[in-house]
Amino acid sequence: MEKDIFSRLAPRWRTHLATVGMLARQGFTQEMQYPKGQPMAVRRDAFPPGGGMPGSDLDFMRAQHLDPNNVQFGVLIPLGAAQSLQNIDLSVALCRAINDWQVEEWTSREPRLRGSIVAAYQDPQAAVAEIHRLAGRRDFVQVSLLSRLPNPLGHRSFWPIYAAAAEVGLPIGVHAFGNGGWAITGGGWPSYYGEDMMSHAQTSQSALASLVLEGVFERFPTLRVALIEGGLGWLPSLRWRLDRIWERSRDELAHLPRPPSEYIRESVWLTSQPIEEPANRQHIAEVMDWIGWDRVLFASDYPHWDFDDPQRAMPLPLSRERRDRFFLKNALDLYGIPHG
């Protein structure tokens, strides 16, 4: 997979990668900060028989995931250090190469799949140019950012990206993870992989609070945001807390004429993976009632080790309408895909 992407780079960048490599904006130059739950965080059965990395072989993905699970619409989200490199020019070039790779190797060959525009957020002008280069193509349905960035997601350095996404009618997909150059908690680096996993929900909450309180949704009322792989059980209590803070801080938050919960209800979607799994599954149904059944998208997280099998996800007695919405129609609505 990396070979396919690197081959799309200019010679200077191929030489750079061979001599210098990719240095991410984090405190660990050689390894990730924590060992994964499985090698490279992938399912052990997801390695293609002909070789290569999981998620790099379309035919194998069809046989293992798309066909047996009757996937009618799926969104690709390329992950890695491309958006968080110390060398920002390399980051811009690599994001462009990844976007071209998605079209040439995936979306042009499989009509069920759409891509995500990987944006080099450290260079907002370059990110905006990339959005405009690819907007309007059926291949892409969202702009991809990460939850752990050098600044909170509501910071005005990112506003040109939000303006461009709103202009072309593409949602922002905020996937949990990223390397912003800081520790993953407000108090430093934790000890265990489990804490790293837990922080995905925490950073998603911080990202959403920043987007709302900084006034992103007030400034860009047509912008839509999907929070991906950060859980969802925390959203009701966060809405309640933000509304209370807003009520008590109206002078400071005078740029927000409406309660935060209203912006969230209108502009924010979440994904199911990794969905909370309480002993009493009915509690999740209650959480979904509070969030809104039209605001949660099923996500498989294929080919990661904690992949959610659609046959086992949401093990609740659901009406046909709610099941259809959760597994397909909410995503089609968010991403503007026509359906009956």
Short summary:
It contains 12 helices and 7 strands.
State the name of the first-level CATH class: Alpha Beta
> What percentage of residues falls in helices of 4 or more residues?
40-55%
Helix-strand string: HHHEHEHEHEHHEHHEHEH
Main sheet makeup: 7 strands, parallel
Descriptive notes:
The protein is of the alpha/beta class. It has a single domain (2-334), classed as Alpha-Beta Barrel (TIM Barrel), CATH 3.20.20. The chain has helices spanning 2-6, 11-19, 58-66, 88-107, 124-134, 159-168, 193-213, 216-219, 235-248, 260-267, 282-291, 320-334; strands at 74-75, 113-118, 140-146, 172-175, 225-228, 268-271, 296-297. Strand 6, helix 11 (282-291) and strand 7 form a beta-alpha-beta unit. Helix 5 runs parallel beside helix 6. The chain is globular.
Itemize the secondary structure elements and their pairings.
Blueprint: H1 2-6, H2 11-19, H3 58-66, E1 74-75, H4 88-107, E2 113-118, H5 124-134, E3 140-146, H6 159-168, E4 172-175, H7 193-213, H8 216-219, E5 225-228, H9 235-248, H10 260-267, E6 268-271, H11 282-291, E7 296-297, H12 320-334
Parallel strand pairs: 1-2, 2-3, 3-4, 4-5, 5-6, 6-7
Keywords:
340 residues; alpha/beta; TIM Barrel; seven-stranded parallel beta sheet; 9% strand; globular
